[in-house]
Amino acid sequence: MLGAALALAVVSKGTLVSLAAQQADFQQLDPEEVHFKSPFGAGPESVVIFGDPSKPGLYVVRNRFPPGVHSFPHFHTKDRHVTVIKGVWWAGTGPELDFNKARPLKAGAYMFHPAGGVHWDGAGGNEETIVQIIGEGPVETTQIGTPATTKGYWPKAE
């Protein structure tokens, strides 16, 4: 009797999971359907893959940096999880943008940005870099210092 009850529980649970999967709104995007845009017409480009960073809830964003393009020191109001999708992403922390202190993160690498943690990042070398960012909205970005304060040059990935 106990065996039958356990079997029924397993079958019922499997049925519930199966029904939930059938009723979910799946989303799929091929790479050709991901259209990056820059608010400035040049420089870093972004696309929201899922959700909305300005509203409550989970969001997924991808940023593309052309070769040699970077952000300036800034922080976000909530935690963010970053995965390098393509290229080498040079990441640095702190309020001073010093390329000599940047760490190269290759495709597949991960970085956690804690809320309020000042950082800067971008694409060094000769190839574009794409990162995917997952976070909880709403989130705001605050720039630190002036964009003209840079030291050194982007190093080349080895």
Describe the overall structure.
With 158 residues, the protein is mainly β. It has a single domain (31-151), classed as Jelly Rolls, CATH 2.60.120. The chain is built from 1 helix and 12 strands; from the N terminus they run αββββββββββββ. It has a 5-stranded antiparallel sheet with strand order 1-2-10-4-8, with no helix packed on it. The chain is globular and about 55 Å long. The N and C termini lie far apart (64 Å). Mean pLDDT is 84; it is low at 1-19. InterPro entries: RmlC-like_jellyroll, RmlC_Cupin_sf. It comes from Methylocystis heyeri. This is Cupin type-1 domain-containing protein. Keywords: Signal.
- Low-confidence segments, given as residue ranges, are 1-19
Largest sheet: 5 strands, antiparallel
Quickly name the level 1 CATH class. Answer: Mainly Beta
Shape: globular
Alpha carbon gyration radius: 21 Å
Query: What is the overall number of helices?
Result: 1
**Number of individual domains:** 1
Name given to the CATH homologous superfamily? Jelly Rolls
Distance between the termini: 64 Å
Do you know the CATH architecture? Sandwich
**The CATH topology, please?**
Jelly Rolls
Mean pLDDT: 84
How helix-rich are the residues, as a percent range?
A: 10-25%
Spatial order of the strands in the main sheet? 1-2-10-4-8
In terms of DSSP E residues, the strand content is 35-45%
Q: Give the beta-strand count.
A: 12
The assigned structural class equals mainly beta
Q: What is the N-to-C order of secondary-structure elements (H for helix, E for strand)?
A: HEEEEEEEEEEEE
Task: Quickly list its features.
158 residues, mainly beta, Jelly Rolls, 5-stranded antiparallel β-sheet, 1 helix, 12 strands, 14% helix, signal, Cupin type-1 domain-containing protein
